[in-house]
Design goal:
With 307 residues, this protein is of the alpha/beta class. The protein has a single domain, classed as 3-Layer(aba) Sandwich (Rossmann fold). It is 39% helix and 16% strand. Strand 3, helix 2 and strand 4 form a beta-alpha-beta unit. The chain is globular, with a radius of gyration of 18 Å.
Length: 307
């Protein structure tokens, strides 16, 4: 009975999955049910699905006047998995000169989703790798972007092994060494380990909430090092951050176990007028007590764009 109630609640939170198309790549997306207002597209991080976005954050954003949508990047979630190329070490992928696709391709995927949604322009909110892609969407497709919120991300100007200066390798190395059984149960265990690892030290980790969505929408992304390598290795040939002329909000936690705060500072300093907010005690996640504050920051940024 409890499972049926949870399933019904989930079905009412997000609309049924739809697909946008960028050439041969199919991109899964959905919308927060009932949310109306200014278009806002959520872009998730390295090789993980859109289901990692907290519904509560989406609802906070909707309450401040946003229509919220989210999608799976190529090589993640329910979107197209690209052909196996290269190795299985995401760190090594940073140094490779050849890639399965480009970062430009990944920005074009986002625009294909906007087209499928019928959105001429949108606010872009990206976390981790999604924050990096959000910066690049605004650089490559400025006519489709209203504002950019980049969370826990490296600056788009850095590439290759230069990214290493911003990375904390401890948690990533631990995840790479840990072995879980193949299949659904192993994927659940690995996702829970990742969720705990990136959680904010200053806020209680909601094990029950994490387990609920992880067990409902099992994601193989944390295990798929080939997909991670392809995404990490996607090279960027576009404009520099100093050319980004949109209102930009840069958010970062000072206890981020994956990326140093210097990454956020570098991003904000490169973009004229960017606002930097560093949250004390926050990791590589978006803890629930901060959702109202984050939504208000995004609302203020949107108001700045209108002004």
């Amino acid at each position: 009975m409890v499972e049926m109630v949870q399933a019904e609640r989930w079905a009412k939170t997000w609309t049924p999955t739809q697909y946008a198309h960028n050439g041969s790549v199919d991109l899964a997306f959905d919308r927060l049910a009932g949310a109306e207002g200014e278009p806002l597209l959520l872009v998730m991080g390295l090789a993980v699905s859109r289901f990692w976005w907290p519904a509560g954050l989406g609802q906070e954003l909707a309450g401040l006047g946003f229509a919220v949508a989210r999608y799976d990047q190529r090589d993640a979630g329910q979107s197209t998995r690209m052909p196996d190329t290269g190795g299985t070490n995401p760190f090594a992928a940073l140094a490779r000169k050849r890639s399965a696709y480009t970062a430009e391709d990944m920005t074009d995927d986002a625009v294909a989703v906007l087209d499928a949604l019928g959105w001429e322009r949108a606010h872009i909110f990206g976390a981790s790798l999604g924050g990096l892609i959000a910066q690049r969407i605004a650089l490559r497709h400025p006519d489709r972007v209203l504002t950019v919120t980049s969370v826990s991300a490296v600056p788009s100007d850095v590439s290759g092994i230069g990214v290493g200066r911003y990375i904390r390798f401890g948690l990533l190395a631990k995840l790479a060494r840990t072995r879980f059984p193949e299949g659904r149960d192993g994927d659940i265990q690995l996702s829970l380990m990742l969720a705990r690892g990136v959680a904010s030290p200053a806020y209680p980790f909601d094990e029950a909430a994490a387990r609920e969505w992880i067990e409902r929408e099992v994601d193989s992304g944390p295990r798929d090092q080939k997909a991670q390598s392809r995404q990490v290795g996607a090279s960027w040939h576009g404009a520099r951050l100093r050319d980004l002329r949109k209102p930009v909000l840069v958010l970062h936690g000072d206890q981020d176990p994956i990326l140093r705060v210097s990454a956020a500072r570098a991003t904000a300093s490169a973009i004229h007028g960017a606002r930097l907010v560093v949250f004390p005690g926050v990791g590589h996640d978006l803890p629930a007590p901060l959702w109202p504050d984050i939504a208000r920051e995004v609302r203020d940024l949107a108001n700045q764009a209108h002004a």
